[in-house]
Amino acid sequence: MANPKIALFLFLITSWTSITIMISHAMPPPPPIQCNTRTSSCTLHNSYGIWGDRKDCYASRVIYPTTQDQLLSIVADATKNKHKLKVVSKFSHTIPKFACPAIGNSSVLVSTEKFNSKIDVNVDGLTVTVDSGVGLRDLINKVEDVGLSLVAAPYWEGVSVGGLISSGAHGSSWKGNGGAVHDHVVNIDIIVPGLQNEGFAKILHLDATNNELFDAAKVSLGTLGIISKVTLSLEKGFKRSITLNFTDDVGLEDRFMSHAKTHEFGDITWYPSKHTAVYRNDDRVPLTTKGDGTNDFLGFQSNLIAVSKTTRATEKALENKRNVKGKCAMASSFIGYKKLIANGLKNNLIFTGYPVIGRQGKMQTSGSCLYSSTRDILNACAWDPRINGLVFYESTAIFPAEKFANFIRDVKKLRDLNPDNFCGIDIYNGILIRFIKASTAYLGQPVDSVVIDFNYYRADSAMTPRLNQDLMEEMEQMAFLKYEARPHWAKNRKVAFTKVEKKYKYFNKFMAAKLKMDPQNIFSSEWSNELLFGSQGGEDYNGCALEGECICSAHRHCSPNNGYFCQSGLVYTQALVCRYSPSSYS
User: Fold this and answer.
1) Three-class SS of residue 580?
2) What is the chain's Cα-based Rg?
3) How far apart are alpha carbons 582 and 586 in whole angstroms?
């Protein structure tokens, strides 16, 4: 007899088509900052409700400025009184703790949630200037309303302009200025500490004429100052035409390069356990092309809370029973459903066939679960921490293009040992492959690059190992150590940042610019320093490898009581991973 939890899950998935069509709102995401009036302290969470090390971030207070003058006053006060500052957006989607204030009683959080009133479009000059707290969707809509288009954007629209610039957020493109948003920046206004005769704070107006500071500020990680305004380049409005081609993954390592060069916004989703690659043929077409399509990506749609909870409960049960076949059944259901509905692409209200053609503003990014009604208690983003829904890791590695084919070959070797062991990745989004062009930003990509993202199950407890975690760790170490991939600044576990400063040829120039802009290190903290200077090594405590806080070098770094021991990788034998092997205990 089939497992009843799996049967229920499959029923919910097959019913999802009619369910998601009816959903138009969701419970709003929780605010990232919570303050306790009794203790006069504030706690910062990311949108997932959990940081990489599961430790909370605290600040003595939070300020919500609404004007640039107020930002200037905040930085002046911090400089004069030697307070530490960190900036956080309304959304707080970063996984690493760059936004966490320094430990102590004088740390202040500056939220840009209410600094979001200005969006000034220069139609003739093809630019737009915005307050740093403006949300990406508001920016896109304003630009599209006047017949223009923003070319690059991340796939998730729940970000602020300042946040996406600071963290190196990107879409997918090797054409033009590329898929990274910071490479479309024309000007940045950033507020930094000043001398006493400067009022202890000043506004730097940065552009290509002062490229030393400009190239540092384009990906600043919030460590240089407070970005107040950003000017982005625009283009005349256009549409996009998208077709998803589900096919065998044979030759993926030989095809990815030509796919990137052929399709302006193309990407590839790889489901290793199913030997399936989905090539997204994604190109601009004239505005006159017929079509009013929308990209409403399945993973970013509102979900019935009951569905999210059941999905999580099912995966937890499968993890506890080490039921790989059950995970593969889940993966097959998800992939089949995605194919059926084109993963959320809609010709109008529903998907009726390829190609899906629509305005750039409707096709480049999505996040419908953000738009909410406080009266709705049935629907939410699937990862909302209040609903006991999805909890996952997200690893993102950025490769020099010429090294990526060999990485694919190594992953295929690992997969071919037992394809079912990769079903845990394929339950989520498989391995998403995107493309970023070389950048002049000091902490941008130094060469044309290929980006992979993959999500996978995260346990409720930091000390609970997960099914097939050795394969995820081997892939992670293969990427970051063997192929010297660079981490996405807003994603990843701590181990991904090992020796990160050595992977950016302009890292020293970034630090020199930081010394000029923030000589007192007002915008640094223990958390951001730990990530920027990753060569200091990982943690050393029992179980530290389970959360990616260290690479194991002893069995105690794994979970020997649960049968997980530190062993060598299967394909990348220099890797050290936590593998389930109960007979290994000695």
Assistant:
1) strand
2) 23
3) 10
Minimal CA–CA distance to 162: which of 123, 189, 143?
189
Predicted TM-score (pTM) of this structure: 0.94
**Confidence class for position 2, pLDDT limits 50, 70, 90:** very low
For 239-497+538-584, CATH gives 3.40.462
Q: What is the amino acid identity at position 307? A: V
pLDDT digits (tens, 9 = 90+) for 6-17: 444 443 444 444
Q: What are phi and psi of 407, to 5 degrees?
A: -65, -45
The identity of residue 357, as a single letter, is I
Q: How many CB atoms lie within 10 A of CB 202?
A: 18
Q: Give the residue carrying structure tokens 């599209």.
A: 144
**Every domain range in the chain assigned CATH 3.40.462:** 239-497+538-584
240 in Cβ contact with 357 (< 8 Å): yes
Task: Give residue-wise pLDDT tens across range 102-152.
Answer: 887 788 999 999 999 999 999 999 999 999 999 999 999 999 999 999 999
Q: Which of 582, 269, 531 is nearest to 567 (CA)?
A: 582
> Which burial class, exposed, middle or buried, applies to 269 when counting CB atoms under 10 A from its CB (0-12, 13-18, 19+)?
buried
Q: Where in the chain is the domain with CATH 3.30.465.10?
A: 119-237
Distance CA 334, CA 327 (A): 11
Q: Tokens at residue 119, please?
A: 């969006």
DSSP 361-417: HHHS-B-GGGSB-TT--SEE-TT-TTTT---EEEEEEEEEHHHHHHHHHHHHHHHHH
| CA 302 to chain CA mean position, Å | 19
127 class by beta-carbon count within 10 Å (0-12 exposed, 13-18 middle, 19+ buried): middle
The values of phi and psi at residue 432, to 5°, are -85, 125
* 397: its two tokens: 């590695």
* The domain over range 119-237 is classified in CATH as 3.30.310.50: no
Indicate if the pLDDT at residue 353 is higher than 80: yes
- Which tokens belong to 583? 């007979």
Q: What is the pLDDT of residues 162-207, one digit of tens each?
A: 999 999 999 999 999 999 999 999 999 999 999 999 999 999 999 9
* Residue 482 contacts residue 574 (beta carbons within 8 Å): yes
Distance CA 371, CA 425 (A): 28
Q: Which long-range contacts (CB under 8 A, 24 or more apart) does 332-337 make?
A: 332/274, 333/9, 333/10, 333/13, 333/14, 334/13, 334/426, 334/427, 335/271, 335/274, 335/276, 335/426, 335/430, 337/13, 337/14, 337/16, 337/17, 337/298
Say how far apart CA 272 and CA 250 lie, in whole Å: 11
Angle formed at CA 327 by CA 325 and CA 330, multiple of 5 degrees: 115
Mapping DSSP to helix (H, G, I), strand (E, B) and coil, where does residue 429 land? coil
Which residues, listed in sequence order, are joined to residue 277 by a DSSP beta bridge?
247, 270
Measuring CA to CA, which residue among 309, 115, 159, 139 is closest to residue 234? 139
